[in-house]
Amino acid sequence: MVILGIDPGFAITGYGVVKYEGNKFSVLEYGAIATEASIPLPQRLVKINDELTRIIETHKPDAAAIEELFFNKNIKTALTVGHGRGVAILTAAKMGVEVFEYTPLQVKQAVVGYGRAEKRQMQQMVKVILGFSSVPEPDDAADALAVAICHGHSYKMNGYVYK
User: Fold this and answer.
1) Sheet containing 63-67: order of strands
2) Domains plus CATH for the chain?
């Protein structure tokens, strides 16, 4: 099964594509889609869509796993992140990729085994699980890889079956 993990954002959207076979993960691609603050909102959203479209066309994932937003005290930040998240969900859905959503607590539980783990603990476990020599960078990409790992560990328990 190929899983596209997405850490949604507006300025930066992290992504990670992993193959999950026989309880083993291998990384196909990871990185971040950055949009410039000087570019108007519609063009920033188009860039996120275009890059995710390329990634989906290249790797043909069986599933897209995306992190749910946690409530942010800064409403403007939450709304802009929501724009990026909406584009990510729409892009995957329009391309026929089933979308699964996970809370930050679920991601930490699946990756570290403790839902209140610190971000650094989660990044270290991503490094270990994926066999990296150092924590993947940028942080947004490491977070997206964690969401993909979460789906790999969770989909059977949720009754999903992939060919």
Assistant:
1) 24-34, 12-21, 2-7, 63-67, 98-102
2) 2-63+72-154 (3.30.420.10)
Annotated active-site residue 143? The verdict is no
Q: Are 104 and 68 in contact (CB under 8 A)?
A: yes
Per residue in 107-139, pLDDT (tens digit) is 999 999 988 889 899 999 999 999 999 999 999
Model confidence, pTM: 0.93
144, 128, 149, 154: which is closest to 31 by C-alpha?
A: 144
Catalytic entry in 51, 62, 140, 143: 140
Q: Both tokens of residue 100?
A: 């699964």
